[in-house]
Amino acid sequence: MSELKQELKEKIIEQLNLEDVSVEEIADNDALFGDGLGLDSIDALELIVMLDKDYGIKLSDPKEGRKIFESVEVMANYIAENRTK
Amino acid sequence: MRKVYIQSVGSVSAQKTFDNSEFLNEISDYNDTVILAVDPAYKDYIPPAAARRMAKGIKMGVVASKLALTDANLENVDAILTGTGMGCVIDSEKFVSAIIDNNEEYLTPTSFIQSTHNTVGGQIALGLGCKGYNFTYVHAGISFESAVLDAKMQLENEEANHILVGGVDELGDHTVKIHRLINHIKPEAVSLRNVLTSTSEGAVFSEGANFFVLSSEQNSNCYAELCDLKTFNTLNEQDVETAAKDFLKDNDLTINDIDLIVLGNNGDVKFDGYYNKLSNGLFSETPQVGYKHLCGEFNTASSFGFWLGAKILKSQSIPDIVRMNAVQAKNLKTILLYNQYRGENHSFILLKKC
């Protein structure tokens, strides 16, 4: 699981161009949106595509993303349970 | 009709032009076929949260516009007009490549959103909170001139007082590759001092952003008066001299009234003949300067020529690096600019000392 969390942090930084953020600065339970990492709705769409492309998880309802993208910890748990690749 | 003045300038180019206190004091030499713009410290001008989605063209445009606003001592403008030949080509390449690479699946929104030609004008407006007229002109080699013409007419007709106008283009890897294939880029590396006398076809490609505040008000900061501008989509080489004469005649001027001509030669032997018609003919006794050896060629490179003309008139000095002949300027009051790219989209611009 810790490997998956590390992988997710690296992907979030790379795909969302968070140039000033390092993997070490993202705690497992940090909020990704709002006051935490400060991601927005466009980032949410990027993350939905990433789940589909890299882990084979299709989110049919974008509202599901609100819960799944709460933190790296929550994302990693969801991916571990639902991934198809 | 009111007069139009160049109130301020802001430039990001292959030279260190982002420092408005300097005027080509330090030259960045090269020996290449494609040259990149010198990056200013973008973080000093753009918040990181906004910058992370911006490709280079948007960053260059935002910085150049901020430099121009600072130089004009203005916080906002009545309108924003942008000229770009290729638009946000880096993001266009990114999302089109993603469509192909991922078999039309897994498409992400960011690069698509940022890929439109009017992204630069939009981002400048968002940063300023400017809800005024915002228009982007995309017309190859006269994209910048089209934006200037719109601004000029609005200022003359009292529809606005201060307008931010600029030209911006960025280099994209795939676009460069295509231009190499069709020989629009020089086949051999050329140095800055040799490019304008090169004997091969093609140009040294580059990128940049040059923005200006054009205003109907004259003040002590003004660089020049923008007197006239005329564009031609097509013009035969043998008709260039007549077109130049007619343009001057429209402004009650003759060849002898021109104190300096700014030419857009890029060292392409196939198309520099247009410029040679003027430099060896009508204007052979006129001081001549060139600029594309400094900024490279791109669809809105003429905005760098506009920057050069404005800086020359304000500083009343001509840097040695831009001189193309030995004729010395006695007065620097009236400047004619001429540009074309690959024999199409010609422009004449007339600037006068304030």
**Secondary-structure element sequence of chain A?**
HHHH
CATH class of chain A: Mainly Alpha
Structural class of chain A: mainly alpha
CATH topology of chain A: Non-ribosomal Peptide Synthetase Peptidyl Carrier Protein, Chain A
Estimated share of beta-strand residues of chain B: 15-25%
Reading the helices and strands of chain B in chain order gives EEHHEHHHEHEHEEEHEHEHHEE
Percent of residues in beta strands of chain A: under 5%
Write down the CATH topology of the largest domain in chain B.
Answer: Peroxisomal Thiolase, Chain A, domain 1
Q: How many beta-strand segments of chain A?
A: 0
Write down how many β-strands of chain B occur, each being a DSSP E stretch of 2 or more residues.
12
Rounded radius of gyration of chain B (Å): 19 Å
Mean pLDDT rating of chain B: 97
Largest interface: A-B, 13 and 13 residues
Given as residue ranges, the uncertain stretches of chain A (5+ residues, pLDDT < 50) are none
Overall structural class of chain B, as computed from helix and strand content, comes to alpha/beta
Outline the biggest β-sheet of chain A: none
Q: What CATH architecture label of the largest domain in chain B applies? A: 3-Layer(aba) Sandwich
CATH class of the largest domain in chain B: Alpha Beta
Top keywords for this entry?
heterodimer, A: 85 residues, mainly alpha, Non-ribosomal Peptide Synthetase Peptidyl Carrier Protein, Chain A, 4 helices, 53% helix, 0% strand, globular, B: 354 residues, alpha/beta, Peroxisomal Thiolase, Chain A, domain 1, ten-stranded mixed beta sheet, two-stranded antiparallel sheet, 21% strand, ACP-like_sf (chain A), Ppantetheine_attach_site (chain A), phosphopantetheine (chain A)
